[in-house]
Design a protein that fits this description.
heterodimer, A: alpha+beta, 6-stranded mixed beta barrel, two-stranded antiparallel sheet, 14 helices, 12 strands, B: alpha/beta, Rossmann fold, 4-stranded antiparallel sheet, 9 helices, 10 strands, 35% helix, binds adenosine-5'-triphosphate, binds magnesium ion
Amino acid sequence: MFAFRLILASLRGLQTNLMRSLLATLGVIIGVCAVVSAMSILAGAEREIGKRFESMGADQIMIVSGSSGRGHRQARVNALTPEDADTIRDQCPLIRNTAAEFTSAAQIKYLQRNTNAAVLATTDAYKKINDYDVAFGRFISREDNRAARKVCVLGHKIANKLFGEVTPIGFRVKIKGQGFTVIGVMEKKGFLGFREVDSQVMVPLETGMKRLFGVRFVTMITAQATGQEKLEAAIQQVKRTLRGEHKIRAGTDDDFSIFTQEQAKERVADVTKIFEVVLYSIAGISLLVGGIGIMNIMLVSVTERTREIGVRIAVGARRIDIAAQFLIEAAVISMIGGVLGVVVGVAFADLLEKITRVLKTFTPPSAIVYALVMAGCVGIVSGLYPALRASRLNPVEALRYE
Amino acid sequence: MLISVRQLARVYQMGEHVVRALAGVDLDIQAGEFISIVGASGSGKSTLMHLLGCLDRATSGTYELDGRPVMAMSDRELALVRNKHIGFVFQTFNLINRTSALDNVGIPLFYGRQARVREKAMASLERVGLANRYKHKPSEMSGGERQRVAIARAIVNNPTVIFADEPTGNLDTRTGEQILEIFHDLHQSGVTIVMVTHEMSVAAQARRLVHMTDGLIDADREVTTELRRELVQAGVLGATRVQNEQHLETEGTPS
Ligand SMILES: Nc1ncnc2c1ncn2[C@@H]1O[C@H](COP(=O)(O)OP(=O)(O)OP(=O)(O)O)[C@@H](O)[C@H]1O
Ligand SMILES: [Mg+2]
């Protein structure tokens, strides 16, 4: 009850110098705002990235061209061929299936409507590995690939964009000026890994490589292991097979790199850690500055109210009562700064999301609690010295103070 | 005996300089007395008030308040004594300007951890005739009204003794009279009053007059009709009050 009244009294004390107190708390506002907005961005990014990883599949092994070794750069950056994918599938017992893919972008056109789209050239295995199927029509078949047929499967969004409500099976579209027959439309999926698949166009691997883009190498091979627990062994098998296939001598680096969902997650987590450390340092510094600001304003307040303190002691306030009053006042100022910081921080994160349109932010409740607790602690710590000074005043001198 | 002081001294050390603000005072005050302290500026009146009011600690001597040795009390006990048994009234009112009269009066109740603060503070304001102004801030009041609020604050915990250091010093004569009326009423109801003043006309309204010089009490006498007459003759006191109080005893105790 007494504590409650003390808080009320502190609040009333603040009213008179509201503007000044708010200015004093600017450091805390900025600090808390930085923490909250950065935490929102980080948490949002982590959540988005997490979603992507989930869609990647934990039993997948991604193989791309080029060495990951830090030493001398590999001469053959483009090293993976469609045949490598077959070899891996046939020779590695721990690999159930593989899908090679080549990705690029091209203009796609239907009548007067045309748009720029990501083109994915791949094989029938793509559908199975990624658990991603058609909504209408059929997916690319082995036959389509062998004969390098000019057929395509449209992602959910691009089908809509070009054809609207009409089911486009059997219609002809132009990709890079060449005629293609639409054989299927994919189901709605969103993201597969980091690729937004609803807006992509899929063509048979052979067709894409030979007829559309004229390349000999694939961008990536996705291999599906027979089980998640055998992933490490499967990777070793793939490595051995590919090194043999590419005739790489012992002691030299691979001309390809392998990564898994788990590894990618770890790498992102590492980056996030660095961000977090930087973030907490910034927050720490601004809160320190905020604390100094509050200590300063509290010292001013103690000096200004010397007489008042004398009166309070004269009518029976204990030293601890005086200290508590100023301590609570400092904490309240800081908490107000904290609340304002949270509001500004959330608003700022929101604004960033709206402006950039790619950043997804999310303010975890723990961030708000953490920020407010921090602000309160800063207030109490920085109020300690002024409160102590107030409580140690000699009442007779305080009453005489002009 | 309410207050019993022996050889009370308060010495300030100013570098090499030693200021004996109070140089060994003996004083007894009984419950229910109304006593004035007069003396030249710097004679130690305020210093004595602060010591008697448990706001300051004496350098040496003994002080018993209601039979309890004050010198041995802890800060916490002194705070409790100030809160429960003592009321202060200052020359400059010393109200907190940003809060209302009611809030000002409630402060001692607040530190006394008391319930029904509003109610009690209101009753106290009523005793000084300012109940209707409870919402007003000190800055919205006249000097006399402020001092009445200060008195309301001093009496809100029903103290045994009130220490008033030049309570009329900042007020004109008429307003000062009103304040003194309140003190008389309080005295009538049994409160002990110790008042410092510069004006003899004010001092003479008490029943006992103490005179200080250089940190010592050099005169302590009852305010008798005879004394009043002397004062009138000396030209420091108007005649009306003396006639009104003919019933007072005629014995003086010059020292
Ligand atoms: N904190 C202090 N440090 C040093 N000397 C002090 C201090 N406080 C009071 N004194 C000295 O003690 C003496 C008595 O002071 P005090 O205030 O008690 O006088 P007073 O009788 O109340 O005077 P006035 O009528 O002007 O209020 C003075 O000489 C003063 O200078
Ligand atoms: Mg004085």
